[in-house]
Design brief:
- The complex is a heterodimer of chains A (about 290) and B (about 190).
- Chain A is α+β, with helices and mostly antiparallel strands.
- In chain A, strands 4-5-10-6-7 form a five-stranded antiparallel β-sheet. In chain A, strands 11-12-13-14 form a four-stranded antiparallel β-sheet. In chain A, strands 1-3-2 form a three-stranded parallel β-sheet, covered by helices on one side.
- In chain A, about 55% of the residues are buried.
- In chain B, the strands form two sheets. Chain B has a five-stranded mixed β-sheet with strand order 2-1-5-3-4, with helices on both faces. Chain B has a two-stranded antiparallel sheet with strand order 6-7.
- Chain B is α+β, with helices and mostly antiparallel strands and about 190 residues long.
- The longest helix of chain B has 16 residues.
- The chains are: A alpha+beta (about 290), B alpha+beta (about 190).
- The interface between A and B is medium-sized, with 29 and 32 residues.
Chain lengths: ~290, ~190
């Protein structure tokens, strides 16, 4: 690995100052499970590595029904699935955090880092998009909030400008009778990169089992994670039945633009998008029906 | 010449102060600066788990953490698992169940297993297999390792709660050396 200068600022202001001063030569460090590999391989060569784990806002999970979720960008996957509110209110995002890499990886890796790494196949990003998550960024020019579905602009590319830092992910408290789910297909049980990943959230009107709201997001089937807007919209106002599910699965499949590679053919991946879309929505709906106590 | 940084941490119960370059991984610091060569370098990409140590109660790949990130943490490595001459129950059970052959993966498996049992003293077999999914072994076929951890968990629940056996280590062998992280090794 090339020589680096390591900084561990304690405040957002200090971190942004460092990142802005060094521009493209600086890179934030969260769990490091991608960045340290990239440094070693030479695929990223920042001179300044800015460890953001000592900044309180990036290291907290704050949830209330009134204010929703503030998920710090550097919170590790283990901290997410050990948090009772996360498991109860965001089971889909929690299960995505639970299947990223091994336990050793989950000890360090963060959902914020997963997003900033910009992989089309990151497991937590479709789960975030399904929940309508927004990314709060602070940079030298101030603050902005970006919907997660527009955050990744290409493989390993994001909307982050030099000097800009992802602070936290903002997610509304779940509406009554709503829930989420995430599923990925891999050819083994653990420790693999998604061949296809699908995140979904749904809000039901339990009186007539109609869909009040739905969001479907796809991973690993395009250059970026994909918000399946048409498929999501197609469910709204419909009775949640097999016909509505099949239609949403067909529309989700139509926006997937997968490639052939060693992990699966494009044709196979498109097929799996449909299968996982049906399963994810079915699971999210079951959870939504059981969520009356909220 | 890059400036070295002073890092203070607690390693295997002892306060340690060391000088390291920011680019050095925790694994490099342990092996090259502290001469603790029990943690092994395998893939350097977080896939094989041979470098697993416990940092603040969590199993981590020491190859995917910078030494400077260890400042202020409490670390347990394979060298800290046995209590002097007494093997940890996990080490004893790995020996009894032949849970190791070449021994390269063994320190990592033992630390992952310890982190699991520290958090969950009564794991199911699937939970054990899940907790060990980040450790690769090309010799044993895993079953013997899983059986060793199942047995160790039962032994620790019913017997000596400390996690340390009362049987002193027998005459040194390659197997026990691998388990103590003390095998002769050319760096």
């Amino acid at each position: 690995m090339h020589a680096i200068t390591y900084e561990s600022p304690k405040t957002i202001a200090d971190a942004v100052k460092l990142l802005a001063a060094h521009g493209e030569k600086a890179r934030p460090l969260s769990g490091g499970t991608d960045l340290i590999i990239q440094l070693r391989a030479g695929t990223r060569r920042p001179e300044y590595v800015v460890d953001v784990k000592s900044i309180p806002e990036l290291s907290r999970i704050s949830f209330s029904l009134q204010h929703g979720l503030h998920l710090g960008a550097a919170v590790s996957c283990i901290e997410i699935y050990e948090n009772a509110d996360m498991r109860h209110y965001y089971p889909g995002l929690t299960e995505a955090a639970h299947l990223i890499g091994s336990l050793q990886i989950q000890s360090r890796a963060s959902v914020g880092g997963n997003l900033c790494n910009g992989s089309p196949a990151g497991d937590s990003t479709p789960a975030l998009i399904a929940l309508g998550a927004k990314a709060r960024l602070v940079g030298p020019k101030g603050e902005r909030v970006v919907p997660v579905e527009t955050f990744i602009t290409g493989p390993a590319r994001t909307v982050l400008q030099p000097g800009e830092l992802l602070i936290e992910l903002l997610i509304d408290a779940p509406a009554p009778h709503s829930s989420d789910a995430y599923l990925r297909f891999i050819p083994r049980n653990e420790m693999d990169i998604a061949v296809v990943g699908v995140g979904g959230s749904i809000t039901l009107d339990l009186d007539d089992d109609r869909v009040v709201d739905a969001r479907i997001a796809l991973g690993a089937v395009g250059p970026t994670p994909i918000f399946a807007a048409e498929a999501s919209k197609s469910l709204i106002g419909k009775k949640f039945d097999a016909a509505a599910l099949d239609n949403a699965a067909r529309l989700a499949t139509s926006v997937a633009t997968p490639i052939d590679d060693m992990r699966g053919t494009a044709e196979f991946r498109r097929h799996i998008v449909g299968v996982l879309t049906r399963r994810v929505l079915t699971t999210a709906a079951e959870r939504a029906r059981q969520s009356e106590q909220r | 010449m890059v400036k070295k940084v002073i890092v203070e941490a607690t390693i295997n119960g002892d306060p340690v102060e060391l000088l390291c370059e920011p680019r050095q991984s925790l694994l490099e610091v342990l092996r090259d600066e502290l001469d603790m060569t029990g943690s092994k370098e395998g893939c350097l990409t977080g896939d094989c788990g041979a470098c697993t140590v416990i940092v603040d109660g969590r199993a981590v790949c020491s190859c995917l953490m910078l030494g400077v990130e260890a400042a202020g943490t409490t670390i347990t490595t394979i060298e800290g698992l046995a209590d002097g001459a007494n093997l940890h129950v996990l080490q004893q059970k790995f020996l009894e169940h032949a849970g190791l052959q070449c021994g390269i993966c063994t320190p990592g498996f033992l630390m992952s297993a310890k982190a699991l049992l520290d958090h969950n003293p009564k794991p199911t077999e699937p939970e054990i297999r899940y907790a060990l999914a980040g450790n690769l072994c090309r010799c044993t076929g895993y079953d013997k390792i899983v059986k060793a951890v199942v047995d160790a968990a039962q032994t620790m629940l019913t017997g000596a709660g400390s996690g340390h056996g009362t049987v002193p280590r027998q005459s040194p062998s390659e197997a026990t050396s691998a388990m103590l992280g003390k095998g002769e090794e050319v760096k």
